[in-house]
Amino acid sequence: MYNSKITGLGYYVPENVVTNDDLSKIMDTNDAWIQERTGIKERRHVVRGDGDTTTTMGVKAAKIAIERAKIDKDDIDFIVFATLSPDYYFPGPGVLVQRDLGIKTVGALDVRNQCSGFIYALSVADQFIKSGMYKNVLVIGSELHSHGLDMTTRGRGVSVIFGDGAGAAVLSRSEDDGKGILSSHLHSEGQHAEELSLIAPGMGKRWVTDIIEDNDPNDESYFPHMNGQFVFKNAVVRFSEVIIEGLKANSLKPEDIDLLVPHQANLRISQFIQNKFGLNDDQVFNNIMKYGNTTAASIPIALTEAWESGKVKEGDLVVLAAFGSGFTWGSVVIRW
Length: 336
Description:
four-stranded mixed β-sheet; single chain; 33% helix; globular; five-stranded mixed β-sheet; 13 strands; alpha/beta; 2 domains; Peroxisomal Thiolase, Chain A, domain 1
């Protein structure tokens, strides 16, 4: 069996910075209220008409990751794209990336696991490589939230949290069984699906013709819904469980972690997990303060920034963990 390792990382965020003070001008909120509840100071939003989409941001991040992996784009054997905000209802952005990068007719898979999307996508790529099927897999997490948020006081509990951006990784075959992805662990609990969800547009309960006829401006089902306290309580439990699961699977302990990169959902969740495992500030990487929650993009953006700043070094034990809509959660344990 082959092993897989991350050989290239890249990220892209829009230039447009939206601060908490900016939001306070369009809804009843303020910087202190947002920071106290989320830890977020600012986020990036795509500007209408500037050309950025979920796919184009993913492509920009992917180009950087491919260059850093020191391979040609035609060395990519497969694409896995994680997002909750695709450009089209269908097809998914995976094939659009294949087209826009000019890669030969490789397979492209779309992953719809929201905040856990990159963890799921990485685990899929890992298994493809370990089975010997592929040598280089491009994994992307990209989100364009801002165009679909309720930017009014009604929606402030959700809308202040999310930002736009993309991150990418090239996962490559390695014969060094002591390095690379050691294990991945995935879970779901669908009984809580509606606690963090976007109900419409969807084909489950409403016909498209009904949606067009209704055109109700007060229909909140078109905006994300989150039961914040319920999600928080579940997140801190599931984060802890899946990190412990990953460590135990590799006969490791919390003190063996060199760097924990959690999904950037809420700074309070990250701090809770940090305290529970007795990790110091150098052992946990957070950038939610700058970018907000970029869902499937948050881990690859954070991992890239951590690597660029020298916080990820050869031989380090790196743990990635995420929890989100579904509910879904997971972890990946890596020996860098």
